[in-house]
Structure prediction request, 486 residues.
Amino acid sequence: MSIEARQYINGAWVAGKSGSPATRENPSNTTEIVGSYPLSSVEETSAAIEAAQAALAGWKSLAGAARSEILHRAANILDEQKEELARVVAREIGKPIGEARGEVKRGVVLLRYYAGEGLRAMGEVYPASDGKTLLYSNRVPLGVVGVITPWNFPVAIPIWKMAPALIFGNSVVWKPAEPASLTGFALMQILEKAGFPKGVINMVLGRGSEAGQCISSHPLVHGITFTGSNEVGRKVALAAVERGVKFQLEMGGKNPTIVAADADLPKAADLTLSAAMRFAGQKCTATSRVIVEESVLSAFTEMLVEKAKSLKLCDPMADDCYLGPVVNRSQHANILAAVDRSVKSGAWLLTGGKKPGGNLENGYFIEPAVFNHVDPQSELGQKEFFGPVLGIISARDLKQAIAIANEVPFGLSAAIFTRDVSKILHFIKSADAGMIKINGETAGVEPHAPFGGLKQSSSHSREQGRAAIEFFTSIQTIAISPSNEI
Ligand code: NAP
Ligand code: MG
Prediction:
């Protein structure tokens, strides 16, 4: 069944005006067209922004409890429809269905968490210097918030941005990434049923360079929350700075896992592979470098390569699928070309890195690639490939391993496998990463704990959990003094 996506503007479903719609092929079988979607024009995007502005006063004046009720309803509807939505995710972006189900379930938890925020404190009371004045702070919404999201977590990321934006009284204009337009439409259909007043939440589709650019530069947008690549993040930030509005960026990673000499090697190999290869390495928190203490390098490498060879590429619709296709033609070509360049520049390809034939020929599959003899300063050691590609780097000792781990511009997530508490403590103190895992994979986050990177991975504000209130509100400080003595 082919999906015909539409935009959602001012409480109405709107087909695109601008010429014929674009189509989306199934990345695991490109002969199947999953659906079509309009490419929203600047006029349509502006209309969505104006609708959000018109809805703002009513929405922000509602009691937190009333907004909370709508978010609870959204959570319940999403929970009822989670299987249908997970199937759209698997067909549109090739995410294995088991992971897609987990992502949708996370969306339900996020909606419930933020529904609860409608009933929590929004400020603090301070002792005034005259002893008579009531001095307090109150958190107020930013206004219209632009939400620009990537394709790789097309349900969880939009929800972890929109749910806090909405509960704190902002109205929203959301642009999903183009490769996840159909999922965006399917999620928006679910949110619509929760009964938001018209204009409070709007969705436009299509080109980042048109709809996305319009959101970041429109004078009525007072806050922009973005997750995606560093290249686009920089443009969004510049447009926000230009207008003096608040922005938040979560971007790329080149996440390291360190395997210390005393690590449980089979566990380290399993979890490193899981972090590197599940969803074909297309997670911002995926491990792309594994830095191994010299004394266990050959034992670990052998184990890892053997396990990598046993991973089977699979149809994302299969319940037990671990490693499906990459998202689209351009990513497929880019990753294969980057693998080629890495071989040419001297890294040793131990397994994978090729397009398979046979019954997978019609999909954007890549066999899981493991390299060793990776120069930490090479492209493979420094750049985010966003595919099923892992580089093994050797280090003399833990100090050198951490130095290599930190020698990239990113700082999203980092892990270490060791049983030694001194190594653990040293790693926590020295790793340049916003997310730190001990004996766990770099990928995977909890919905109620702060999430975000250091260095160029982030603009340094945090998402999820209570941390979200910092971005999605501003603080007013209020002093009420008596007019006369009583
Ligand atoms: P992307 O290419 O940067 O796109 C992100 C979003 O920005 C999309 O909606 C895109 O629309 C839009 N966009 C493109 N050009 C724009 C412009 N000039 N102005 C405003 N918006 C514009 O990223 P992606 O390919 O979707 O996702 C992969 C990247 O996201 C990776 O780098 C990954 O590490 C990062 N990521 C980070 C996190 C995190 O939390 N740190 C989580 C997930 C992903 P179009 O799709 O229409 O171009
Ligand atoms: Mg992109």
Q: What stands out?
A: The chain is about 40% helix and 20% strand. The first strand starts at residue 3 and ends at 4. Residues 7 and 14 are 5 Å apart (CA to CA).
